[in-house]
UniProtKB/TrEMBL annotation:
Swiss-Prot/TrEMBL keywords: Cytoplasm, Glycosyltransferase, Queuosine biosynthesis, S-adenosyl-L-methionine, Transferase
Encoding gene (name): queA
InterPro entries: QueA (IPR003699), QueA_dom1 (IPR042118), QueA_dom2 (IPR042119), QueA_sf (IPR036100)
Name of the protein described by the UniProt record: S-adenosylmethionine:tRNA ribosyltransferase-isomerase
Keyword GTP-binding: no
Sequence similarity: Belongs to the QueA family.
Pathway note: tRNA modification; tRNA-queuosine biosynthesis
Length: 367
């Protein structure tokens, strides 16, 4: 199928870089759009150190920004097994009948039939296990989604070494979040506030939305040496007909489709691959994806990408390397380290453009 990786060998260690721990952002900035923005044009043009609030000057009238409108669930719970051992639960996905798919942290794995007394009240019953995920039924005094909104705790990423505070309840959600279901924020979207969105509208830049519920697998390390052997966790997405029409209209008028975050790229590429005609054209799609994008895969669905800086050896770093070229991305990361950019979820951002040869091909494809 067009776009799939060719017969290349990539090692996990090929995507390692050294990051001083103090560059990992532990808190959000006071203003969302005050984050720095590293502009990475195709190879041959220099990097530019800007700010996210400069986006209206960096984009063009007729461009389409595509956001992920997923909303983070307060998905972290604590409790105690019948044996007395402490348990941490991270809900991966809500299921019917007050059930959920979850990861469990405990000194000894709970067995099917076991019950966990929850600190917030009620119990979680262990129904079974599939690999690292458990299926739980919650015995609580409300529907599980409503109960979590009252009783769950926000699941900040593991590299943020503090408990979530009141400010995180607002700042670890995008201002356009509306579809509840993620356990991690689509962090590129965290840089947008209402004032920036209004300025972009006034510049003639259009907005579209997809939904991809980010799962706990986004934080799972690649455990195999050969990248091609890695298997992604499944995540649910929805690319609607309205967004597909927006993309087609943008292409027809010569505008650019700009993904706000890697989750948008994964959603659009998954929807393009779902096309039964096999021509790679974007079509509406709702369902599961396990798409894994790494160098050798040609991303066709977007013309530019706004994204945060990603963990060493992570699948997200592999995705941006596929889009902009591994050497180019790693040169940009080295620049960001030297210039003391802030990394990861609450950190700064990059505006990435595709490799020069891919940009030219994309222009040819669009004509």
């Amino acid at each position: 199928m067009r776009g799939l990786p060719g017969p290349i060998t990539l090692k996990k260690s090929d995507f390692h870089y050294e990051l001083p721990p103090e560059l990992i952002a532990q808190e959000p900035l006071a203003e969302r759009s005050a984050s720095r923005l590293l502009v990475v044009p195709p190879e041959g043009a220099p990097f530019a150190d800007r700010q996210v609030r400069d986006l209206p000057q960096l984009l063009r009238k007729g461009d389409l920004l595509v956001f992920n409108d997923t909303r983070v669930i307060p998905a972290r719970l604590f409790g105690q097994k019948e044996s007395g051992g402490r348990v941490e639960i991270l809900i991966e996905r809500l299921l019917p009948e007050n059930q959920a798919r979850a990861q469990i942290g405990a000194s000894k794995s709970p067995k099917p039939g076991g019950r966990i007394a929850l600190d917030a009240g009620g119990e979680a019953e262990v129904l079974g296990r599939d690999g690292e995920f458990y299926q739980l039924r919650f015995h609580v005094d409300d529907g599980l989604e409503s109960w979590l909104l009252k009783s769950g705790r926000l699941p900040l990423p593991p590299y943020i070494h503090r408990d979530p505070g009141i400010d995180d309840d607002e700042r670890y959600q995008t201002v356009f979040a509306r579809e509840l279901g993620a356990v991690a924020a689509p962090t590129a979207g965290l840089h947008f506030d209402d004032a920036l969105l209004q300025t972009l509208r006034e510049q003639g830049i259009e907005f579209g939305h997809v939904t991809l519920h980010v799962g706990a697998g986004t934080f799972q390390p690649v455990r195999v040496d050969d990248v091609r052997e890695h298997r992604m966790h499944s995540e649910w997405l929805n690319v609607g007909a309205a967004l597909v029409e927006q993309v087609r209209a943008t292409r027809a008028r010569g505008g650019r489709v700009i993904a706000v975050g890697t989750t948008v790229v994964r959603a659009l590429e998954s929807a393009s691959r779902s096309n039964e005609a096999g021509d790679g054209q974007l079509q509406p799609f709702a369902g599961e994806t396990q798409i894994f994008i790494f160098p050798g895969y040609r991303i066709r669905s977007v013309d530019a990408m706004l994204t945060n800086f990603h963990l060493p050896e992570s699948t997200l770093l592999m995705l941006v390397s596929a889009f902009a070229g591994k050497a180019r991305v790693f040169a940009a990361y080295a620049h960001a380290v030297r210039e003391r950019y802030r990394f990861f979820s609450y950190g700064d951002a990059m505006l990435l453009f595709p490799q020069a040869d891919d940009a030219a091909k994309g222009q040819s494809d669009a004509s």
